[in-house]
Specification:
The complex is a heterodimer.
Chain A lengths: L1 H20 L1 H24 L1 H6 L3 E2 L4 E2 L2 H32 L2 H14 L4 H27 L10 H25 L3 H9 L4 H12 L1 H17 L2 H6 L17 H8 L5 H31 L5
Helix pairs in contact in A: 2-13, 4-7, 4-10, 5-7, 6-7, 7-10, 8-9, 10-13, 12-13
Chain B lengths: L1 H40 L5 H5 L2 E2 L4 E2 L2 H32 L4 H15 L2 H15 L6 H25 L3 H9 L4 H12 L1 H17 L2 H4 L19 H11 L3 H31 L1
Antiparallel strand pairs in B: 1-2
Helix pairs in contact in B: 1-12, 3-6, 3-9, 4-6, 5-6, 6-9, 7-8, 9-12, 11-12
Chain lengths: 300, 279
Amino acid sequence: MRGKSLKVKETIIEKALFLCAAGSVTAVALITLFIFSSGYSVLRSYGPLNFIFGMDWSPVNGEYGILPLIAGTLEVTAGALILGVPAGIGCAVFLAEMAKERWAKLLKSAIELLAGIPSVVYGFFGLAIIVPAIRDWLLPAVQKIDPDVPASGFSVLAGAFVLGIMILPTIVSMSENAIRAVPLEFREASLALGADRRETITKVLVPAAKSGIFSSVILAMGRAVGETMAVLLITGNVPKVPTGPLDPAATLTGTIAMEMSYAGPEHQSALFAIGIVLFILIVILNSIALAVMKRFGGAV
Amino acid sequence: MRKRKGNKIIKSAVFFGSVRLAAAVTLGILALLLLFILVKGVPHLSLKFLAESPENMGKEGGIFPVLIGTVYVTLTSVLIAMPLGVAAAVYFSEYAGKGRLVHIIRFFTEVLAGIPSIIFGLFGFAFFVVFLGMGWSVIAGGITLSMMILPTLIRSTEEALKTVPGAYREGSLSLGATKWQTVVKVILPCCRSGILTGLILGIGRAIGETAAVMLTVGGSLKLPVSIFDSTRTMSLHLYMLASEGLSQEKTYATAALLILIVLGINWLAGFIGRRLTKE
């Protein structure tokens, strides 16, 4: 009798644990449901193609074209990758292959601590240092050549700088792991064949670690696309397609965060529709990273 | 022959030079960021700053209600996410097989971990604030954050559970304990510090989060009393101060405090984690 009730209890507990585990499925389902249902009405009335490829974002006049926002997000992200990826991979190579073991450990844990710094702090840093630096040092020089350049300092370049810094910890930490995971035999074989250390690194180690490095770049890209607070403070939030690095820009995330507080019903729905676009973009990027890691047996 | 060798040496020098430069730039800029904010902010930190209420929208006075709001929101999120996260991890590591369903659940956990915070904010606003009628409140922000930190908690608890040797399970089961008794009395106590590490990391993430909180807690500067009051967390306060340019001094002080708290928390998590590996 007692054995039976014990068995029932165990089964109930197992079911309850299963429900908890399924909690994340519920969460993702709820998020998807609410974002899509809230954004649906504008997508339908304005037309999804007009929405995505429309050049004019001015909610006051009922215009909801998000191409300028997509362009802003992509330009800032591309800039961040151009600035952050070479520095980050260089740093990973340094830590994995060149630095003394003790220093490498110390520096790496310092970098991982930095990954925890809130994004709003990076944004504030950009606002306090990088925007003024561009305005006071870079712009006077550029203005001699092109007098029409926007003079505020809030720009794609400033956003790219700050995001480039923000993604460094992700890239350094994951790439370093990937390079370290390359078996010692690879190094020995390469050196034994007469390659010097530079050739071993560039022709053997980095190619062998490329799936880990690639995943780190994709994840960093996802982080840059989804980042809100840092770009909100420094890109200027002007919804026009930026034509140069010194133009101000608005991003998908920044626009949602800026305008949500005062948006009317239709405008709100449009902001949710931006959320849909962002959501799909991020899921695609993360799936690529996951697939690459799985495919190559991920050294991460 | 000699020329080629010289070429190689030059190439090497250029390569190692640029790698060193990249490392120096990376480490230098991260150090600069920290030092800059700490040097400008720490001198303005004082007991008065921590214990006083803000005046003029934060232009003067301290950040006491903001600290309380941060603690409230963070505690709410952790209290909700912790049991769920540990239970989910126990299921994954002790009960689940390798079935299709488990695979799907794991995939969704990964998806949840990758969703950007502003999307959580949008969802929290649509669901908790509007649909469930909670209004901008501690509880709406807390639940939204709990969803955000759930994957972190699941992952770290699972890692901790993996470190418990299989012999412990077998020993307990062979003594006649049921599976659940084994989990509660043997396995979970064994990986306390691992679970604690995950908890602390979750707290760190919750404190630093801004975008999700911005759309769900409102931003009131009043001292929150009930969990249905609107409030403001430190990171949101920092954003408001920075974007409105109210007071340089208070902005730097808030930023420095936020950095110190988050670094302290992450260091603590690392410390406990290292102790765990020694055990």
